[in-house]
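Internal ticket #5521
Category: modeling
Description: The requester needs a full-assembly model to guide mutagenesis choices. All entity lines are attached below as received. Residue total reported by intake: 522.
Assigned to: D.W.
Attached entities:
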Amino acid sequence: MALPTSSVITLHINGEKFTLPVDHRTTLLDALRERLDLTGTKKGCDQGQCGACTVLVDGRRTVACLQFAVAAEGREVTTIEGVADGERLHPVQQAFLELDGYQCGYCTPGQICSAIGALQEHAAGWPSAATDDLRPESGPPPLTAEEIRERMSGNLCRCAAYPSIVDAVAQAAGTTATQPAGTQADSEEQAA
Amino acid sequence: MKEFTYQKAADVPGAVALLGADPEARFLAGGTNLVDLMKSGVERPARLVDVRELPLNRIQTTADHGLRIGATVTNSDLAAHPDVRRRYPVLTQAVLAGASGQLRNMATVGGNLLQRTRCAYFTDLTKPCNKRDPGSGCPAIGGEHHNHAVLGASSHCVAVHPSDMAVALSALDCVVHYETADGSGELPIGELYLPVADTPHRETALPPGALITHITLPPSPVAARSRYRKVRERASYAFAIGSIAAALDVRDGVVHDARVAFGAVASRPWRARAAERVLIGAPAVTEAFGAAADAEMAAARPLAHNEYKVTLMRNLTVAVLGELAEEAGR
């Protein structure tokens, strides 16, 4: 018996369920934009190189262009439309707004979803390529500008609003990008 | 993109059975490479078997105090794991040097080992490529090859393997375990990738239809002092033009043990055994590190535009071994 090349799937997006038939070739990105009118998620390169389509899947940031919608069935997808608490912006959204973390705005939804994921990863103690001390007992490294730039390197901004993006991510994290290295680690050691 | 059927595997035997011996079927895990290649038409599977949710996502300490790492462990989880950070820091550094936070959250260990070259001719269907279309030719040799192989290449293909993780795994003597319909098997990582020869389209020694289930790392005291350094054309989020994974055990100023592997210089992660032979027993000084690099790069056959890699790998070797030796002396 020939297997089908399309399926009826149920996607969980921003706390809602959507049931729709999809050709298996449909990416999560195209399903969001073209089928569900969730056009906040942007299509940039469509090949995993620019980060404009970043969404959170099961709480982790991913690119929606390199996953098929059919494979996302059963996972919790959060897009830019779902990060605010009603009318109250997410702290990362608020920081981008206050500090002009964008110019044309096209990469911004991806930047914000990526920053939300990156800050959770940092809080969980994940190191980055900018982290000198990998020892797990050292806890999250100080969130310096260098750490933020490295952790956000998967999101390109053709307007080059990078300095403001770094400031916005730092503000959202409740720290400042100019904080001297070591300050945060010291305070965490005292807390621990 | 060609139409395809999609099935989710429930367990490992089920996944292997679903794939069968069908040359038009592919396992799908993170998809960061396969989906991209399907979009460009390099890969045209008629069937996908999704293995992402198989129970292969654990990292466990083995009886001999090595590590067993499941094939669907994501790059992110591998890099962040406490035992990897403590006992094999070179592996955490290598994984974090690759791709972006988003891609590392998707990509898996098994897929990372099997990712395809980023040679631009390979992904351009309008160009010949012996790896994609055997016998059609290799335009890179007379064309754009500044980032191509200087070691172990052939007149049929000069593409490099893009993985950072696999370079560290090579230095760590990782063993790759797989499952087939006929049972399970294993390959040391040094035997996973086939020499280029005149068959660049045949990349690994895995039997047809094999599913990588996990990898194992033997205990490696030398790896406690190890690091990965990658050189690329921008500061982050780019493939290597040269990289090194190294581990060094220095006692009384003499190299007691060493592991060295090079990345972005060959069709596979390049274990630098000639360099290791020079290092072990030598004084831990710059001259010895340079001699070790020279011993390895003596086999280099650079092309017109990538001779810089010979110098780059020497400089990387001297720098990274020097740092490890300095750390050991502290």
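Resolution: model delivered.
Comment from assignee: Chain B touches chain A at residues 1, 3-7, 28, 31-32, 35-36, 39-40, 47-48, 50, 52, 76, 79-80, 82, 85-86, 89, 92-93, 96-97, 99-103, 105-106, 235-237 (CB under 8 Å).
Ticket closed.
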